[in-house]
Amino acid sequence: MLTFTNSHLLLGELDYVEPASVDEACALLAEHAGEARLLAGGTDLLVQLKLERAEARCLIGMRRLPELRRITGEDGLVLGAAATIRSIARSALVRGRYAALQEACEAFSTLQVMVMGTVGGNVCNASPAADTVPALLAFDARAGLRGRHGERAVPLDELFVGPGRTVLHADEMLESLRLAPVSAGTGSAFLKLGRVAADIAKVSVAVRLDREGEHIRDCRVALGAVAPTPVRSGEAERALRGQAPSAALVQDAARAAADEIRPITDVRSTAAYRRHAAGVLVQDAIRRAWARAGGREIR
Amino acid sequence: MRRMIRIRVNGEWRELSVAGNALLLNVLREDEGLTGTKYGCGIGECGACTVRIDGEPVLSCLTLAVAVDGCEVQTVEGLAVDGRLDPLQEAMLDTAAVQCGFCTPGMLMTARALLDETPAPSEQDVRDHMKGNLCRCTGYASIVRAVLEAANRDGGPEMAPKPPALGAPRRSRGAPRTP
Amino acid sequence: MSRRPMNAIGRSAWRRDGVAKVTGAETYASDVVLPRMWHARVLRSPYAHARIESIDTSGAEALGAVCLTFADVPKVKYNERIVSTPPYLYRDRYVLADKARHVGEAIAAVAAPTEALAERALRALKVEYEVLEPLVEPARAMRPGAEPIHATVRLADAEVPIEGNIAVARTIELGDVGAGFAEAAVVLEREYVTSRIYHAQMETKSVVCRPEPDGGITVWPTTQSIHNTRQLLGEIYGLPLHKVNVKRVAIGGTFGSSIQMNSVIPICVGLALKARRPVKLVTTREEDLYDHVRYQTTIGLRLGVTRDGRLTAGHMRVLADIGGHNIQAYPLLSVMAGWWASLYRLPAMKYEGRAVYTNKTPSCAMQGFGNPQVSFAVESLMDELAEALAMDPIEFKLRNYVGLGGTFWGQGPSVQSIIRSDGAPELLRVGAEKIGWSARPAAGSATGRYRRGVGMARGFHTSSAGAPKPGEVIDYTGALVKINEDGSVDVVHAMMDHGGGTLDAIAKIVAEELGVPADRVGISPVDTRTTVYDVVTHATRGVYAGGAAAQRAARRAKAILLDYATRVLGIEADALVIEPDAALGQGVIHCPAVPDKRITVGALAKLCQTNSWGSIAAVESLRPVHCPPAFVTYFVEVEVDTETGAVTTTRAAIGSDCGTVVNPDLARGQLEGGLSKGAGYALYEDARWDAESGELLSRGFWIDSKVPAMSESPPLAGLETFFATTWEPTGPFGAKGIGEAATNPCAAAYANALANALGIRFRELPITPEKILAALQAAR
Ligand SMILES: Cc1cc2nc3c(=O)[nH]c(=O)nc-3n(C[C@H](O)[C@H](O)[C@H](O)COP(=O)(O)OP(=O)(O)OC[C@H]3O[C@@H](n4cnc5c(N)ncnc54)[C@H](O)[C@@H]3O)c2cc1C
Ligand code: FES
Ligand code: FES
Fold it and tell me: What's the pTM value of the predicted model, to 2 decimals?
């Protein structure tokens, strides 16, 4: 039954704490057993609390954890979980080399949300439409998790269980996202369709191609908002890998991706549209990525 | 939970007792009487509640007051200095970019942040930066014109610099004008 | 009235409330704060259709809240929009519902010292419902045997039964339709479906009420009409009107959503009276989304035309889905007939309109009131007919349109007037030049992935609901103009300004009439106690009717002033003129033939005061007796990505014939705003309901109504607005209206542009990428 929520307010008492270390944050998570939530930018969490789709008694702020906001370029790219979408979009380490990630961050619906929202929040919120996730998948991102009992690294495509659900334990938090290094022959692109520009995706696609001469040595094709979690299309990747791109190949890959996904009909779009549009975006993204990788125009 | 926080609102340090669940929007509007910042949706979709925190445009409807302890908060009331309008405010009036005016405070805060960061934005920059501020009246064209116009004026060499505002975030230059 | 050069009208200046609005100082209803004020929340039905069995308020009262339920409110059935005359007012609601007729219907309300406490109290209310079959779709509501959503409604002094959930029906037939169609060489018949869109005004509906020691009340509401709000509150609560004071505060957009007295207003009043203290009620966006939408319509349209492009007959069938309450279905059906009859000359026409109750959010007027719907159908079909005849649509439309000397139905069949100014041909000519009409591609000839097309549609809106004889609609207004002791002027006018600049235009009209500088004319803050009646700011009547009343009052004040001037200057009043003197910042009264005889308005006014001659003020009322059409023409160019169905607006040229342009910059803003809302209607916006639960599919997200943002508006270089050079002889200084006209034909222009780009006609709004792609695939 529908409850009329009240977005004027946050209902319910809230404790707010700002731990000084990640360990302390994990301890707090454990201590409040299920009643505490990490608060990064709050652009998902506070909306969910207001619309009563989530509950919390204690919010754990991350302002005193500056190391989590850092973006570094050692051995690939490492994004602190609390790096804001805007800081990633504007980072010199990201620009060009991780074009798909930059485009994904710029595709965020509004400036204010880019300023407030973080990549960790985007990932941990586990929305199938999260914009950064296809791009992160395209760069083989590994999630660095830390809990009371230590650290572990989880490949991003194993992090999501379903809409809003991840493999994180109750006392665990995301510390960083480590993206694979890119080479001179790497090109990538991210494309998104919304109903209006300031919207979450009804379909999104990220593609990364590693070019070797006229061939695609390796590649990733990842899609958002077309399945219960952001997904990679293994079929499309298989179709492309080792091949020299041609119009026919690009079409085959797009068809493979469109066949593999499991889109639904909802208020934002229809399953049929999503399937078709996903194919179109995959083609467009491959062409862009290939051009960025220095490849010749695909005919 | 209630807690004391110190925030610098439009250049003035304030000590406030706030509840853990209090939203910055309501603290500004109700406790500080700064009703220029508006509620439009409460969930981040309209931008009417935009204020600047340490210079950045932020949605006050999705910001806990306790989480901005120690920060600089600028609201629309802090734009004019000593009764002198900011060039952006003037440009909004000159281009008739204000109709009902309910979106205007949020628009101004987002636009001021843009101009402080990008003094000579392109039309596309303006659209990208401001698409999170909805306006149902104007159709936006006049607002785009206002921001571009204000950018011209901000940088105009003939303009005398404004006296620095007491503690206000980094400000632009501009001379007073009368309608 | 002469076409002399003007000093105030036609000049742009900062709007009078501008500085307040850019500094955050403007007061909207939601900003009003009073001592001892409590906060209210409304309990809303989670069910689309349900009987209320019981309401237990004990839990809420235990928290210290004051509660209001059906049992507490006066048993007065009302209609919230008292613009129709009493015989046409369908009253079907109480302050709080006796039965839930849509999700979101107000069932009970609470007030408490803080909003948080009020929210807790609200959740402590226990309501038992008997859930009824939800009649969400019209077909289900009209099915024989369906549960009546309203068994009876109150019309005039009687309860009248409602059959088949049809709230009202209206048929109009003129001429011999059968013979007309028989004469036609080409007959096309199509069905058009328009969407229910949300007004998406930025300020949610809000109200503050303070009970007064004398038993009266003072109210600060979001409304388009302070006087109608007052009258209804007086009627419902049995208060004499002098004890009901409704204050004008700024409104954060409305577009028709507050044409009625908003249902939260009497709820807040009830709470304040019961709590004996001021109460504030600001609705949440979640609630507001369930409060109002544009009328959804299905329009069957058949038109016949001769080979040489003359319309012979038309038949229109309208089914309007009005939701759970009848706010204004009768006038809707009337005006839709009127808009149709006034677009093109039809020697014979038959119109059949029906309005059906459904268990959804009640519909109300939204910018254009039935006109965007009719224009979408008619302008689409006219384009298609032109194509069938191999005629240029502009030529075809010019051949048939209702122009100078024609009869215009400004508000249905009972509000008609003769057209005396007509900029329609000029708008078509200039717009065609600006967009490059003659160079547009042949329909469907474009190839490649990205295809461009140009479309055109024309239309109008009425300026006021004025007519020679009083009909079904009230249009009445008045103003007080007084000249202050320094020569400045106060205009006391009850009209609302929704942001379009109505009050600035009125100030300019007064300045022009009096001959004083425009910046010496102020708009007084007002309430219902200090103003004479104005019906409501709607029907694009602000400048035309409201301005005319102010002009009339100014003229009389001026006569008084000149009488005194005669006393001082010894020159006959008829020989005196008043002209603004910028250096003095004053109007100067002088006689051109006797240059040394002059006095400033201020000096004279001061003399009047010090000598106790009398105040220089006049109050006048006005009922307009004409309703001139404000013509508008849209040319839009779109680009379609045929792979994704995405549409971008690349160029637009919008022309308006509003007579004399009083506020040039604000008039442009009306057109640009009209494009944004029109594009939203054409391409994006739709409020969709779950057919079973009657819930909004958007579930509280405003974003799901897809209001266009800055990124959707066309590039500045591609956007042109322009004005016809007309003069309306019945309007103040040649002016007529603009507001609602600004959006009416927009959706049709988009549909025609898409037809031009793709060779495919879209007849259902919004025209989403999903629909475009499906149509392209079907055509392949
Ligand atoms: C108006 C609006 C528009 C939006 N548009 C977009 C869009 O275009 N694209 C898009 O992808 N998203 C969009 N979002 C969603 C949201 O902004 C993003 O998902 C954002 O990145 C979330 O980050 P945050 O820091 O605000 O997360 P928060 O809301 O702070 O947190 C989200 C969730 O992640 C958890 N969390 C946060 N950090 C960590 C961590 N380090 N370890 C473990 N858990 C953590 C939180 O506990 C919470 O459950 C939009 C939201 C709004 C309100
Ligand atoms: S009120 Fe904060 S974004 Fe709408
Ligand atoms: S001016 Fe009314 S919403 Fe922007």
Answer: 0.96
